[in-house]
UniProtKB/TrEMBL annotation, chain A:
Keywords: Kinase, Transferase. This is SiaB family protein kinase. GO terms for molecular function: kinase activity. It comes from candidate division CSSED10-310 bacterium. The keyword Kinase applies. Pfam families: DUF6272.
Automatic annotation (TrEMBL), chain B:
InterPro entries: SiaC. Residues 1-28 are annotated as: Disordered. Residues 7-122 form the SiaC family regulatory phosphoprotein domain. This is DUF1987 domain-containing protein.
């Protein structure tokens, strides 16, 4: 049941505002949508006097997260042209001296453990190790399978992140879980 | 050979691959959903171009942002040119980056480390 009414819509707006939300999106993520939302995100960050280097980092993380939703969300919607797009959610908000780019989408329970292992392994490595790992994967001439190419995306996000990656799996039914991933980017960066 | 000239779109860089001058340019941002669809024709073009034994090849890259999967395609393109350089071809990569964009510079340096090609780094205003 919807909790949104006209009377509490101001409250709803306040909740967003108090959470430091810059952009929040829930729905199907298409490449077209990504370009548009990305553009809104950049405009909003510029309007908030965020320095270009930080905007670029946030944008890069946003693109990787949005493309992961498009490709790997287990909740797919059929488009008119027969292609499929993933459903999910992305929120970019500012809290204290960091921006957080948080994405969420449904995955199959059978994918939880491999994903958790991959993220654990990324989290246990230093940035230098991650840089070498990303290089090795990119120079590998073999075609990467789906989850592996997402793997590089996670590594690249971890390299850009200013805090360790954080993630959470919330079981939604017997077969599915909601996977949330949070990447933090520091508000001020040395250039 | 065809002269490829394309305008940039929201998620694809502008392309100008000129077989007459041997100057190949990629300018803008690159984060298509399926970079292979965008880059495969360019890589095929480069493969064919090196068989014509051009006097020199100059690749100008000025990408303000490219996503992870685009970087893999860029490496594929650079590796074709590397092959040509290995057989005595003259290849230079001009890596352009916006003034103060240390991350774009670093991305280019990263490629320079692993690709056996002559890289020239130029900060542009």
């Amino acid at each position: 049941m919807s909790i949104i009414t006209l009377k509490n819509f101001y409250q709803f707006h306040k909740t967003f505002e108090n959470s430091g939300i810059i952009v929040a999106y829930k729905g199907t993520m298409s490449q077209k949508g990504l370009i548009e939302i990305g553009s809104v995100l950049r405009t909003n960050l510029q309007a908030n006097d965020v320095i270009l280097r930080v905007i670029k980092k946030i944008f890069a993380v946003f693109v990787e997260e949005a493309q992961n939703i498009m490709k790997y969300s287990a909740d797919k919607k059929k488009n008119r042209d027969g292609t499929e797009t993933g459903e999910g959610m992305i929120t970019i908000f500012k809290k204290d001296d960091h921006f957080y780019i948080v994405s969420g989408n449904v995955i199959k329970n059978s994918d939880v453990e491999p994903l958790e292992n991959r993220l654990d392994s990324i989290a246990s490595q230093t940035k230098d190790e991650l840089r070498q790992l990303a290089k090795g994967k990119k120079f590998n001439t073999e075609k990467l399978t789906g989850t592996e190419s997402a793997g590089i995306g996670f590594i690249e996000m971890a390299i850009k992140a200013d805090k360790p990656l954080e993630w959470f799996f919330e079981p939604t039914d017997h077969q599915h879980s909601f996977f949330s991933l949070s990447i933090a980017i520091k508000y001020s960066q040395e250039s | 050979m065809e002269h490829i000239s394309r305008e940039a779109t929201g998620d694809e860089p502008a392309v100008d691959f000129n077989p007459e001058t041997g100057q190949l340019q990629l300018t803008g941002e690159s984060y298509p959903e399926y970079p292979g669809i965008f880059y495969t024709p360019l890589i095929k073009w480069a493969e064919q171009f090196i068989t014509t034994k051009p006097e020199k090849i100059e690749l100008f890259i000025h990408l303000r942002y490219f996503n992870t999967s685009s970087s893999k395609c860029l490496i594929d393109l650079l590796e074709i040119l590397e092959e040509y350089a290995e057989t005595g071809g003259h290849v230079t990569v001009f890596w352009h980056y916006d003034q103060g964009d240390v991350d774009a510079l670093e991305a280019g340096k990263d490629l320079d480390e692993d690709i056996q090609l002559h890289f020239v780094f130029e900060e542009v205003k």
